[in-house]
Amino acid sequence: MNTLALDTTDVPAAVAGARIRLSGMADDRAMLRAAADLTRDLQKPNPVIYWGDFLGSAAVGYAALAGAILLPATGWAIASGVLAVLALYRASLFIHEITHLKHSDLPGFRVGWNLLLGMPMMLPSFMYEGIHSLHHSRTRYGTAEDPEYLPLALMKPWTLPLFLLVSVLMPVGLLLRFGLLGPISMLSPRLRRLVVARYSGLQINPSFERRAPEGEFARQWRWQEAGATLVAVALIATVATGVLALKPFLVFMGVISAVAMLNQVRTLVAHLWENDGEPLTVTAQYLDSVNVPTGVLPWLWAPVGLRFHALHHLLPSLPYHSLAEAHRRLSAALGQGTTYHGANYPTLRGLMGRLAASTMGRRAA
């Protein structure tokens, strides 16, 4: 990291370079009431938008992946690889919507997503379902029981590059999880408990252990894991025997790695990561989260509504295609200088600068 100074032009003046006091913050009742009242008609997911967006993104992503594999090593192959990463990244982020959807509103979407993307990329939805809901728990957010939270802003500078490095190695981890550990664990109850608790969730909190699935979710888990295992074992076997050439395998793994890296960068700026482990009010959780509502680039690095991540924490059941309109309504109803505008930031660069500066301050301390 060479440039760690915080660019205050990219951060709201009220919070530039300073931590927000989250612990003990009271809820802004007016904001919460407005959020509920102004979005009642936006709650219904539109199947045409969901299916069209997902299928279109997946089709473009797989076509571009084929181009990256089949084209000679030229600029066109690189361009195809970049397009594959962006399109498959967008398609993969529907896993986030799956965790919040009432599946009766979009019948078949979870199955379709897993068959077309989750299992082929060794990223079945059970890896996120049952995990992400805890992150939205009123009493768990930002605590040691939150699987998706670490106080990164309060940690040492080396944690940030390590956080990104882990994502680069994600495809190797998935290959080992589904191609080796998963099948072997079926023969050992003790290993199975470890695999389920520690290696079956997209979590960033290393101390979190998930519970074994039950009921309908356990049935979903079984067929999704079987599909991902089939893909992983097939990849290992065909590469080892020479049936699958090394180039397509490495390109495929490289695309998954780049998708994971891009998502990890987004994760770094999804929150301010400034909570020290205390339970927070909804308002405090909102202000520890981030909206980047303007500009073109957020559509690429925070697609499927995730540029409105703070608003999502305020209204987690709102479909992704409704978030822009909800933001417009709340911005108009709640004027500048109110709590709602405190979670809006202009750029990725400014947020990364703020986080880096905070960790550097920890080193100085």
TrEMBL record:
Q: Which UniProt keywords apply?
A: Membrane, Transmembrane, Transmembrane helix
The protein's matches in CDD domains, at most eight in alphabetical order, are given as: Membrane-FADS-like (cd01060)
Question: Boundaries of each Fatty acid desaturase domain copy?
Answer: 76-341
Q: Does the keyword Transmembrane helix apply?
A: yes
Q: Which GO terms describe its cellular component?
A: membrane
Residue stretches spanning the membrane: 48-70, 76-96, 108-128, 158-180, 229-262
Tell me a GO biological process for this protein: lipid biosynthetic process
Please name one Pfam family that this protein belongs to: FA_desaturase
Q: What is this protein called?
A: Fatty acid desaturase
What organism, scientifically named, is this protein from? Sphingomonas tagetis
